[in-house]
Design a protein that fits this description.
alpha/beta; seven-stranded parallel sheet; binds nicotinamide-adenine-dinucleotide
């Protein structure tokens, strides 16, 4: 299928590694032009340079902390200027810290609100005027399977990611007339550095090998393995492309069947 992403301008947040990078790589494979951001200038430069080299596309890296409103504004403004437009946006960031209700004070709640919900609001607000003007655009948020099955000890993530899904659905009504689609992509156990770190911690805690811990996790997934960043990339570019022209306000779960929810 031709996704028709050749030369489309796509902004992807938190893209130096993991799922953000996976979507960037899939978009580069389709010939898209990419504005990538993450906190470390060196790492994001490296990610952009590697995509540029391997796929011969225009890929540029910008430093931006998703917690920081001014940094988001600057990333989006620079991208709009450097690329002269925007066709797609992928909202992504690291997750809030683990913990249960008694652990968190107001400052923790505010930080998680900024990192997970307000980063989405600010990134979307940044691209909407240009997308409205051209009467087209596709936006994608990345959340977690916790929007369907809250995850134990991840209270802050559970709460604010549900807010992001509500934002996506509500906004899908408001921007449809402008030719803009917005959808939500849910990763479930994608084999990134983050998941590898959690596996190592759990293996040490249980006194078993990392391999054994991973096998235990795989046995809870109907498709019997972790997802790859390529699996996420394939789903991401589909939702960003015209192949998904009739899909908006939707949530697509990429979890090997793990989430036990009907909707
Ligand atoms: P990862 O640690 O492999 O990559 C995270 C990326 O985000 C890196 O590029 C990092 O530099 C960047 N980043 C982190 N905090 C940032 C910030 N404040 N501002 C800008 N960039 C920032 O993680 P991942 O597995 O790719 O996860 C991406 C998101 O998806 C996270 O929010 C994670 O909680 C969520 N998630 C992942 C899984 C999974 O199975 N991997 C499952 C559910 C949810």
């Amino acid at each position: 299928m031709d996704l028709k992403l050749q030369d489309k301008i796509i902004l992807i947040a938190a893209a130096s590694q993991g799922i953000g990078y996976g979507i960037a790589e899939a978009a580069a494979r389709e010939g898209a032009r990419l504005s990538l951001c993450s906190r470390s200038p060196e790492k994001i430069e490296q990610a952009a340079a590697s995509l540029k080299d391997r796929y011969r596309v225009d890929a540029r890296g910008y430093p931006c902390d998703a917690m920081d409103a001014a940094a988001i504004e600057s990333w989006i403004e620079s991208s709009l200027m450097d690329f002269s437009g925007v066709d797609g946006l992928v909202v992504n960031a690291g997750g809030p810290p683990p913990g249960s209700f008694d652990k968190f004070g107001d400052a923790d709640w505010t930080r998680a609100f900024n990192l997970t919900l307000m980063s989405a609001v600010r990134m979307i607000r940044g691209v909407l005027p240009a997308m409205r003007q051209q009467k087209s655009g596709a936006i994608l948020t990345l959340t977690s399977s916790s929007i369907k099955e809250p995850i134990e000890n991840l209270l802050l993530s559970n709460v604010f990611r549900s807010g992001v899904v509500s934002l996506v659905k509500t906004l899908s009504y408001e921007i449809a007339d402008d030719g803009i689609r917005i959808n939500n992509l849910v990763p479930g156990r994608i084999d990134t550095e983050r998941v590898q770190t959690v596996d190592k911690l759990n293996a040490d805690r249980k006194g078993i090998s990392v391999e054994e811990q991973r096998k235990q996790q795989w046995s809870t997934i109907p498709l019997g393995r972790y997802g790859s960043i390529q699996d996420m990339g394939n789903a991401g570019v589909f939702l960003l492309s015209d192949a998904a022209a009739y899909i908006t306000g939707a949530t697509l779960v990429v979890d090997g069947g793990k989430t036990r929810a009907v909707f």
